[in-house]
Every structure is written in structure tokens, then in C-alpha cells.
């Protein structure tokens, strides 16, 4: 286990898995969507999953009391015993509770001066762990709502071991809004966000102008926003939305070459073998 001071002070309950109680629509499904039909193994690049494109479950309460449209739905999929163990053993050190107040980053990471990188929707956390190991001088805050994924990354943190990763198991939109102050981040990673293939679901896509503006406001001048997708039409949308955010500038002429630190996932590899494309976008906050 990595040598890191316990983050137990951040926990409000003895069982870290309870941190999930607040994370997904207070336990209710969203208004117009159903459970995406894939299991944990499908959490990688989106060509290999059909996230959020089923239409089998509508909660009448959601119609009567509409809530903000979210970029995720609560997916089926249980944590393995090893993932549950990781929650119990490593959760107190590495899981931070969601709270609508600024995160005390130096206390959470037990150091003050490291560059601060936010990753939204890390899935099973393979890429997160890879990058955190490659860049030990940087701090990584991973935000993910999928419980087995959180357990999987905790497990990796213990196995690797890693001391520069913390996790918040909550809607990243609220985390960015309420926990991360303006100009506080050096980088943001959004790798293979759910593409929400169907047109009527496009409103659920994470990377839309208001959220991109919010993300950009959290970056320091010179900080970067790195997105990747394997869904061409979403890539085009990203290019348009990021390009339309006045506080950001593109580091490339259109799509960027894949930065070396982003590993090629097995799903991406499979897609590439099948001839599918992958598009990286790297923008910087203007000074
Ligand atoms: C298609 S998966 C990609 C996972 C990973 N980045 C990868 O490249 O394999 C998208 C992930 O984003 C997560 N997600 C979607 N919206 C989110 C949100 N608002 N807050 C936190 N996680 C979110 C989903 O739970 C899912 O695990």
C-alpha cells in the first residue's frame, strides 16, 4: 500500500462504499433514459459499447420533477469482491467525499505544490493509473460515478502503488461547479466520454458549451484540456465546442496527435484494428 496519510478526515461514514449514496440522482434513474447495455468490461472506448442508447425505463417522478440532464445513467454491474475489498481497505485513504464546498487540495493530496489534473469519467481507471505512475510529480483527481470502476481504480492504487491519485465518486459536473475553484487546475482529461449516439440523447453529452466554459474557468492560464473520442461525430462536436470557447486555444491545427502519456486502451486497439478512428483534442487556457 502506498505511504500516504489517511484521508479519513474527509470521510463521513465508516464504509467508503456509502459515498455512492449521493452520487446518482439520489438513487433514481434519469428522466428519459435507461440503463446502458454493457458490462464493466465494456467501459473503454465507445465504439465497443452502446452507452445510454436503450429506452426501457422511464421514472414518472422524473417527469413530474425534472432535474438537470445528466451525462450518465446508473449502470448495471456489481463490484467484484476484490473491488469491494479495495473500497474498505483503500477507500479511507483515497476516496474523498463529495461536498458542495471548495476542496482542500493540499490536505487531500498531502502536498501543496504539485500540478493538479482532473480526470472526468475514468471508467475502470486503467488509463488513470498508467498516467499517474508515469507522472508522479502531478496530482490526479479522478471523478467517476460507476462504483465498480471506482473499486477497480482503488485496487490499482494499492497494487501499483500510487500516492498521487484521489477519487470522488460523484457527478463531475457538480464536483467542478462546487469543489474546484476558478483557475485552480493545471489540466483536465476527458477520455472517451459517453458518446450518446442517438440524436435525442445528444443533450446528455458532457462536452457542450456551458460545461466547457465551466471547465475552462477552472483551468489556470496555460492549463490544458485534453479530450479523446472514437466517435467521429462527437469529435467534430468537441472541435466545434472547444474551438468556440473564447478562453481556450487549440494547440494543434484541428485534432492533435495523441500525447505520449495517454495510453492506447485495449478497446481502442481493437477499434483501430477494425479501422475505426480515434481523435485527440488538446486545448490550452489563454493567458
Ligand atoms: C465510455 S466510459 C470511458 C471510460 C474511460 N475514460 C476510458 O477511456 O475507458 C465514460 C465514463 O464516464 C463516466 N461518466 C459519465 N458522465 C459522468 C459524470 N458526469 N461524472 C462522472 N463520471 C461520468 C461514466 O460512468 C463512464 O464510466
TrEMBL record:
Q: Which InterPro entries match?
A: SAM-dependent_MTases_sf, tRNA_(Gua-N-7)_MeTrfase_Trmb, tRNA_methyltr_TrmB_bact
Query: Which residue intervals make up region (Disordered)?
Result: 1-66
Q: State which Enzyme Commission number(s) the record gives.
A: 2.1.1.33
Pfam (any one): Methyltransf_4
- Cellular component per GO? tRNA methyltransferase complex
Residues that coordinate or bind substrate: 198, 230, 265-268
Taxonomically, the superkingdom here is Bacteria
| Feature: compositional bias, Basic and acidic residues | 54-65
Please write the reaction equations for the catalytic activity of this protein.
guanosine(46) in tRNA + S-adenosyl-L-methionine = N(7)-methylguanosine(46) in tRNA + S-adenosyl-L-homocysteine
Binding residue positions for S-adenosyl-L-methionine: 119, 144, 171, 194
The identity of this protein, by name, is tRNA (guanine-N(7)-)-methyltransferase
Q: Which organism is it from?
A: Pandoraea eparura
**Source gene?**
trmB_1
Amino acid at each position: 500500500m502506498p505511504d500516504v496519510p489517511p484521508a479519513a478526515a474527509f470521510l463521513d461514514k465508516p464504509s467508503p462504499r456509502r459515498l455512492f449514496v449521493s452520487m446518482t440522482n439520489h438513487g433514481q434513474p434519469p428522466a428519459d433514459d435507461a440503463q446502458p447495455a454493457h458490462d464493466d468490461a465494456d467501459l473503454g472506448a465507445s465504439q465497443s459499447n452502446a452507452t445510454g442508447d436503450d429506452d426501457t425505463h422511464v421514472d414518472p417522478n422524473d417527469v413530474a420533477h425534472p432535474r438537470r440532464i445528466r451525462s450518465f445513467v446508473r449502470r448495471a454491474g456489481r463490484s467484484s469482491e476484490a473491488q469491494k475489498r479495495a473500497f474498505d481497505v483503500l477507500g479511507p485513504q483515497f476516496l474523498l467525499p463529495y461536498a458542495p464546498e471548495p476542496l482542500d487540495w493540499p490536505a487531500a493530496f498531502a502536498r501543496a505544490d504539485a500540478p493538479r489534473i482532473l480526470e472526468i469519467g475514468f471508467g475502470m481507471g486503467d488509463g488513470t493509473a498508467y498516467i499517474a505512475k508515469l507522472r508522479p510529480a502531478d496530482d490526479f483527481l479522478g471523478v467517476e460515478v460507476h462504483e465498480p470502476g471506482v473499486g477497480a481504480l482503488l485496487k490499482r492504487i494499492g497494487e501499483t502503488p500510487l500516492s498521487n491519485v484521489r477519487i470522488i465518486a460523484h457527478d463531475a459536473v457538480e464536483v467542478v461547479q462546487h469543489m474546484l475553484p476558478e483557475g485552480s487546475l493545471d489540466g483536465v482529461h476527458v477520455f472517451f466520454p459517453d458518446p450518446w449516439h442517438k440524436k435525442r440523447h445528444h443533450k446528455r453529452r458532457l462536452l457542450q458549451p456551458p460545461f466547457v466554459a465551466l471547465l475552462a474557468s477552472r483551468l489556470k492560464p496555460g492549463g490544458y484540456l485534453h479530450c479523446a473520442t472514437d466517435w467521429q461525430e462527437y469529435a467534430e462536436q468537441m472541435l466545434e465546442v472547444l474551438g468556440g470557447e473564447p478562453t481556450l486555444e487549440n494547440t494543434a491545427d484541428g485534432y492533435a496527435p495523441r500525447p505520449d502519456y495517454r495510453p492506447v486502451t485495449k478497446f481502442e486497439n481493437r477499434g483501430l484494428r477494425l479501422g475505426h478512428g480515434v481523435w485527440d483534442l488538446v486545448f490550452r487556457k489563454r493567458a
